[in-house]
């Protein structure tokens, strides 16, 4: 480590930049989580930093950089005392404490929205006290003097922590994700992932930029001195970050057909993680390739996670472990061979790097997995389903938000179904606008329900809602008047208590009833049945039915009409019609009789005329006076 003032200043400034990354993680993770959990995630990011620094001061720094015991762990420097240390040691401790905070906070994004606060604090202690310091000693031990850690001793290179910091945090995150299981609703019954959008993408994007800015100190400060290589390291860092972002953007357009925000942010971060191990031994062009490779590896890992139904909320494993593995191997694939021993080939160095990657997986995952399984037996590691649905802001911190207040009001509204109740409107906020529109919907709904209630209340028809098995769920006053039961009693009966067929056939469901009476689509024309009153008396009934769903439950709405009066009217009409037809027939018979009588009278009259004419003829022949006037012309005229 450099000893000049400018060296110390650079290390302290770099520590400050790495500390700023904590704010980046806070914004990134809270932005990608839902509003009901955003405060919990933010508090975890804040408290894990405090816990990690304190624990690292007490134990972690000594285990990581104390004088080595056989290259396995440090044995000196517990409860680091700055007053007894040199300025260089104090600056180095500060810088490394910030690194420890970064490794720990990676876990919080993966387990967001379902891990208990107490469980998270304990895993933070475990990582900062043992997991991170032990692997850190194997890779970086001896920097402060004494024997090297065993990995560093065989030539393992990880300049700023692609494996030591990022992969370690990601392996612990994987263990936690497996033990906890996915969030409620994250995966459907078919196993396909369901998108759960975060509460503020701009906040997440801001966090990404803060992380990229802090990475200047993360990689640049790992030189532990100011020198000419620092600008190159920073340039390589930024090139890899932007290359990762552009690669992820293009992959998003190719795979999803739109620019996905999560791909873009995680692509940038994956590029940063990938360059962290090798930024001091590669060229600018190689930095671009490494950053792009980190983004592609991240995308593949993210898709594998979804296939395995592993719910990593922000993609901690994909970004920090998968890209970290790639970056660690890239030291041997792209790095300047002068960075390692001259008698070691590139393939041999690749083997050393791969051993370091495998060791990191073993140390990062296995102890954390076993620790979490044991912890799960002692405390509630995952919050209850009720608290998960409620949100960890309220259940863990007793902190409400305007979103949660609105949801509670709406839930209370649905439970009591009091349409006169209105939700509180917080003016000049988006939630207030939603609440105002919700109240307007309630106004319209209340008016509609009131009108429908008037119609249902005043109608004389019985309107019943029935479950598919035939139990009556609700009844209107018309049903009470029709059947003679109070509404409360009707709602405890079955529909077959009120309806009967001519054959008194028994039914086991409303559907079979409707099929029996001849309707299959339930959009009924009139169906004739008999209604059964409380007294047992039957009356002719007309039934109309419709199938539907209320509150996710299948129901049938039945409208029953008493046809007693209608039958009387119809019988009266039928009787009147019969009387009219009988009168018509009698009238027609009279007409026929009159016509027959007229024919007989005319025939007789004509015979009389003929007889008179014959008498007149005989009188003419005898020379007598004619007794009758000549009526033949008149008769002809009449005919």
TrEMBL record:
Residues 418-450 form the HAMP domain. GO terms for cellular component: plasma membrane. Gene3D superfamilies: Ammonium transporter AmtB like domains, PAS domain. It comes from the Bacteria. CDD domains: PAS. It is a multi-pass membrane protein. It is found in: Cell membrane; Membrane. Residues 448-490 form the PAS domain. InterPro entries: Ammonium/urea_transptr, Ammonium_transpt, Ammonium_transpt_CS, HAMP_dom, NH4_transpt_AmtB-like_dom, PAS, PAS-like_dom_sf. Keywords: Ammonia transport, Coiled coil, Membrane, Transmembrane, Transmembrane helix, Transport. Residues 566-597 form a coiled coil. The keyword Transport applies. GO terms for biological process: ammonium homeostasis; signal transduction. The chain crosses the membrane at residues 6-28, 49-70, 90-112, 119-140, 160-180, 201-218, 230-256, 317-335, 355-375. PROSITE patterns: AMMONIUM_TRANSP (PS01219), HAMP (PS50885), PAS (PS50112). GO terms for molecular function: ammonium channel activity. Belongs to the ammonia transporter channel (TC 1.A.11.2) family. This is Ammonium transporter. It comes from Pelagicoccus enzymogenes.
């Amino acid at each position: 480590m450099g000893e000049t003032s400018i060296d110390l200043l650079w290390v302290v400034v770099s520590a400050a930049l790495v500390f700023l990354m904590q704010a980046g993680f806070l914004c990134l993770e809270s932005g990608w989580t839902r509003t009901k959990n955003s405060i919990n995630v933010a508090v975890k990011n804040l408290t894990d930093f405090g816990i990690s620094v304190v624990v690292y001061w007490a134990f972690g720094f000594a285990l990581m950089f104390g004088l080595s015991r056989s290259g396995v762990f440090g044995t000196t420097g517990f409860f680091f005392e700055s007053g007894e240390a040199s300025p260089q040691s104090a600056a180095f401790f500060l810088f490394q404490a910030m690194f420890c905070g970064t490794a720990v906070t990676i876990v919080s994004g993966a387990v967001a929205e379902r891990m208990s606060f107490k469980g998270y604090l304990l895993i933070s202690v475990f990582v900062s006290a043992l997991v991170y310091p032990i692997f850190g000693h194997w890779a970086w031990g001896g920097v402060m003097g004494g024997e090297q850690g065993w990995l560093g001793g065989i030539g393992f290179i990880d300049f700023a922590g692609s494996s030591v910091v990022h992969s370690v945090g990601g392996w612990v995150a994987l263990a936690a994700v497996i033990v906890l299981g996915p969030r409620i609703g994250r995966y459907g019954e078919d196993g396909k992932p369901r998108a759960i959008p975060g509460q503020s993408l701009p906040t997440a994007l801001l966090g990404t930029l803060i992380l990229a800015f802090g990475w200047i100190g993360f990689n640049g400060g790992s030189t532990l001195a100011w020198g000419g290589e620092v600008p190159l390291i920073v340039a390589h860092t930024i090139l890899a970050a932007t290359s990762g972002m552009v690669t992820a953007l293009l992959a998003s357009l190719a795979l999803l057909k739109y620019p996905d925000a999560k791909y873009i942010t995680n692509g940038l971060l994956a590029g940063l993680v990938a360059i962290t191990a090798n930024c001091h031994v590669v060229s600018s062009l190689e930095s671009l390739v490494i950053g792009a490779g980190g983004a592609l590896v991240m995308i593949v890992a993210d898709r594998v996670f979804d296939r395995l139904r592993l719910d990593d909320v922000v993609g901690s494993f994909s970004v920090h472990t998968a890209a970290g593995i790639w970056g660690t191997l890239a030291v041997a694939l792209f790095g300047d061979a002068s960075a390692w021993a001259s008698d070691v080939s590139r393939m041999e160095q690749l083997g050393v790097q791969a051993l370091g990657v495998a060791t990191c997986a073993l140390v990062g995952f296995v102890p954390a997995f076993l620790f979490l399984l044991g912890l799960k037996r002692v405390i509630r590691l995952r919050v209850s389903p009720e608290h998960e649905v409620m949100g960890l802001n309220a259940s863990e911190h007793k902190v409400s938000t305007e979103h949660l207040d609105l949801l509670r009001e709406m839930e209370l509204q649905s439970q009591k179904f009091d349409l006169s109740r209105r939700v509180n409107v917080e003016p000049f906020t988006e939630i207030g606008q939603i609440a105002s529109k919700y109240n307007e919907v309630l106004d319209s709904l209340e008016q509609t329900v009131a009108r429908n209630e008037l119609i249902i209340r005043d109608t004389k028809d019985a309107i019943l809602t029935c479950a598919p098995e035939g139990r009556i769920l609700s009844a209107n006053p018309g049903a009470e008047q029709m059947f003679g039961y109070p509404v409360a009693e009707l709602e405890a009966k079955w529909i077959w208590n009120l309806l009967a067929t001519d054959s008194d056939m028994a039914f086991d469901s409303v559907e079979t009833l409707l099929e029996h009476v001849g309707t299959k689509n339930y959009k009924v024309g009139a169906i004739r049945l008999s209604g059964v009153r409380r007294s047992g008396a039957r009356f002719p009934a007309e039934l109309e039915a419709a199938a539907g769903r209320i509150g996710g439950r299948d129901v049938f709405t039945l409208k029953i009409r008493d046809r007693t009066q209608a039958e009387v009217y119809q019988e009266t009409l039928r009787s009147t019609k019969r009387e009219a037809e009988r009168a018509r027939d009698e009238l027609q018979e009279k007409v026929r009789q009159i016509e027959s009588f007229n024919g007989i009278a005319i025939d007789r009259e004509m015979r009389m005329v003929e007889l008179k004419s014959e008498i007149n003829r005989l009188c003419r022949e005898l020379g007598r006076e004619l007794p009758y006037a000549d009526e033949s012309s008149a008769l002809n005229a009449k005919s």
